[in-house]
Amino acid sequence: MAEDAVSPGSRAAVYTTLAAGPAFRHEIEIKRSRFITVLARTGDEAGARSVVAGLRKEFHDARHHCSAFVLGADRQVQRSNDDGEPSGTAGIPMLEALLKRETGPGVADLSDVTAVVVRYFGGILLGTGGLVRAYSESVSGALDRAPLVQRRRLRICSVAVAPAAAGRLENDLRAAGYVMAETSYGAQTTVLRLALPDEPEGLARAAERLAAVSAGSASLVPGETEWIDVPGS
Q: pLDDT digits over 98-112, tens only?
């Protein structure tokens, strides 16, 4: 059960991952063998390995549970496992399907994704080339159908307002195209949180917009940066 690993290095401010929610599943059949692909959003190696372990239990009667995962905004953690298939015919093609997936024109930035392909052997040998194609196509086909979302490193800014004014102000900000993070509700004050590009011009424009829609009664307080799922990206 050899595992291949690669660790590139760079710094990213944006990448693509699976939309939050349950794991995505897709199945194909090739020469009577069933290939069940499960894609799960995972933030660390422990989570990725937990996905694999869970599927081994669920599909305990399957012959192979091959896996690959890519983690981190910089995709610095990359692993693959053939799980008994001939070396290089399953895990690596699966990993390459993740790494080479274009999420935009000329952009391949998919990460925080674990792919597991469960194979039920159908009695017909596929050969080395057939296995490579089958595992690659299993993951690629699942990615064609899975919901993806862009994640960005954004500056979280807070706006404290009276509860009675919070709903209208939040609607105005959403209508203006701002990404809203979690809102905190208190008896006397509601704190809206905006996720903004971490650059002075964007923060200044947001402060001006806020002053305009609140008639100068609300101010923008910059906080820390966080990774945020950006809707509609």
A: 999 999 999 999 999
Amino acid, res. 156: I
> What is the distance between the alpha carbons of residues 23 and 115, in angstroms, rounded to a whole number?
10
Q: Domain 3-146: give its CATH code.
A: 3.30.230.30
In angstroms, how far is CA 145 from the centroid of its own chain?
Answer: 14
Fold of 151-230: Alpha-Beta Plaits (3.30.70)
CA dist., res. 232 & res. 223, Å (int)? 24
Least Cα distance to 100 among 72, 75, 119 occurs for: 75
Place of tokens 């990206």: 233
Least Cα distance to 95 among 84, 110, 106, 74 occurs for: 110
CA distance 161 to 101: 43
pTM: 0.85
